[in-house]
Amino acid sequence: MDLNEKKENDEAVSRNFIEQIIEKDLSEGSYDTICTRFPPEPNGYLHIGHAKSILLNYGLAQKYHGKFNMRFDDTNPTKEDTEFVESIKADVKWLGADWEDRLFFASNYFDQMYEGAIKLIKKGKAYVCDLTPDEIREYRGTLTEPGKESPYRNRSIEENLELFDNMKNGMYEDGAKVLRAKIDMASPNINMRDPIIYRVAHMTHHNAGDKWCIYPMYDFAHPIEDAIEGVTHSICTLEFEDHRPLYDWVVRELEYEKPPKQIEFAKLYLTNVVTGKRYIKKLVQDGIVDGWDDPRLVSIAALRRRGFTPESIKMFVDLCGVSKANSSVDYAMLEYCIREDLKLKKPRMMAVLDPIKLVIDNWPEDQVEYLDVANNLENEELGYRKVPFCKELYIDREDFMEEPPKKYFRLFPGNEVRLMHAYFVKCESYIKDETGKVTEVHCTYDPATKCGSGFSERKVKGTIHWVPAPYAVKAEIRLYENIIDEEKGVYNEDGSLNLNPDSLKILKDCYVEPSFDNAQAYDSYQFVRQGFFCVDAKDSKPDALVFNRIVSLKSSFRLP
Q1: Which of 34-48, 68-82, 389-403, 457-471 has the lowest mean pLDDT?
Q2: β-pair type (214-216, 67-72)
Q3: How far is the C-alpha of 303 from the C-alpha of 491, rounded, in Å?
Q4: CA gap 38, 56 in Å, rounded
Q5: Gap between the Cα atoms of 110 and 209, Å rounded
């Protein structure tokens, strides 16, 4: 086998099963070009699982030079809201999926859906049913027993047309009548046992207003939407696999040319996270989180606010792959992806989260030295910045101990360390307040030990970071952990959430170096020895910076 053959074989193996189906359809002329879509229902914010669907559908359209449609499946006015419409549009754009001029609403097709229902009635394929919801469930049968036909199943076409027109004209109360497809009450697939395709609902619709008091069911509306828009491959998650025969039945009976093809793939499940809209809504209402974009959640808006990037989420989705088998992915993989994305892109800055003052006793009182500090030692293209160094600094409390244990190499009485980017300092004394808490550490510095000077007469084992006290910028820093208590799992026996009481720790009196003066919402940085942090988009202000911890520096996760 030559190298070209090997490359072709490797590429064939690397294609997921959806790509193989698309390439077969294109090669056989089933479709001239492809069109995919992302069809969210606007009843909540999107989460990480939706990101997989967005990037998959958009990526396929890009790969095969096709089109990608954005469509809101807004057929259920009881749960939908324009707030969710706008948040979804923002999330899809942020992920980089471009629908160009193809932004659609299912509600814009209500006339065609109504005409489709009329066509089915005229073909003898649909009927108005007066059974109550409980009776319909009873008549439907079970997985092992066939259903039985509704006593209204054999109404005449004329009677069904009249009754359906009355439904449309508001003559019946909600739930009084439904329109059902006439398929097969003995089908082994319960979805094919005369499913409801229209119901009465006297509700104001966010897009259609009060024009309609009957609304199509999702299983009827979705294939029609796809067919109208020219979607070729309707890619959805595995729970719709049993609905595919109904999808195919609708487009066949309505006689669409080149009907769309439904393909199912496995959902993306993350361990120990909350994605259910009902649970998130309750967390918001109870004030446990500060909105659908709280950084402890995995909605796309929350991940963005926390500091995740579109590139990191795409990397994560690519690593998860596309398959037919449901599986769960550890949250640590998502954290791995954001670390990989940020580590060479972002400057490494100094921030002190739990400050104590360090005073250099032999430093001239009013002298300030501006040090040249590399923004990222692993990426020279990020250049350098100037950091002022002076007599009084802040260091982290954990970098000083009165009586240190063995192998503690930071500051303690008599010990010498390097101040990052600066000089060696030796601890000479310290001051406590009346409670016994250390408030100041006093040191002397060695002028010959400036970083980059080539000094090598002696070595020190510890290096600590700092910020210059007179120039430091005060900041609030929020340390996020999983909102779920991972040891107990997501749910209690009663169905409530196992919440982690320590999911958020707020540090009010932190200091960062003056280089953060121009920090903007969503800007992210590596705080040396601390992790990656992002300027909070909701609460941060130029004169009152708030940083969210995106992820710590260390992880036990490794790619297989």
Answers
A1: 68-82
A2: unpaired
A3: 22
A4: 9
A5: 12
Cβ contacts of residue 302 below 8 Å, gap of 6+?
A: 45, 292, 293, 294, 295, 296
Q: How confident is the model at residue 104 (pLDDT cuts 50, 70, 90)?
A: very high
Q: Which helix (H) or strand (E) holds 126?
A: strand 126-129
Instruction: Tell me if 526 sits within 8 A of 551, measured CB to CB.
Output: no
- CA-closest candidate to residue 176, choices 126, 130, 117: 130
207: confidence class by pLDDT, cuts 50, 70, 90: confident
Check pLDDT > 60 for residue 9: no
Q: For 464-509, how does the pLDDT look when each residue is reduced to its tens digit (9 = 90+)?
A: 999 999 999 999 999 999 999 888 888 887 878 899 999 999 999 9
Helices first, then strands: H and E counts in the chain? 13, 27
Q: How far apart are CA 552 and CA 530, in angstroms?
A: 6
Dihedral (Cα; 341, 343, 346, 351), 10-degree rounding: 130
Give the model's pLDDT for residue 487. 83
Q: CA-CA distance, 27 to 64, in Å (whole number)?
A: 12
Q: What is the pLDDT of residue 453?
A: 77
Secondary structure letter of residue 437 according to DSSP = -
Tokens of 102: 């193809």
pTM: 0.89
Whole-number mean pLDDT of the chain? 93
Q: What is the DSSP string of 161-206?
A: HHHHHHHHTT-S-TTS-EEEE---TT-SSGGGSS-EEEEE----BT
Residues 542 and 362: their CA atoms lie apart, in Å, by 35
| One-letter amino acid of 323 | S
DSSP states along 24-82:
HHHHTTS-SS-EEEE---SSS--BHHHHHHHHHHHHHHHHTT-EEEEEE----TTT--H
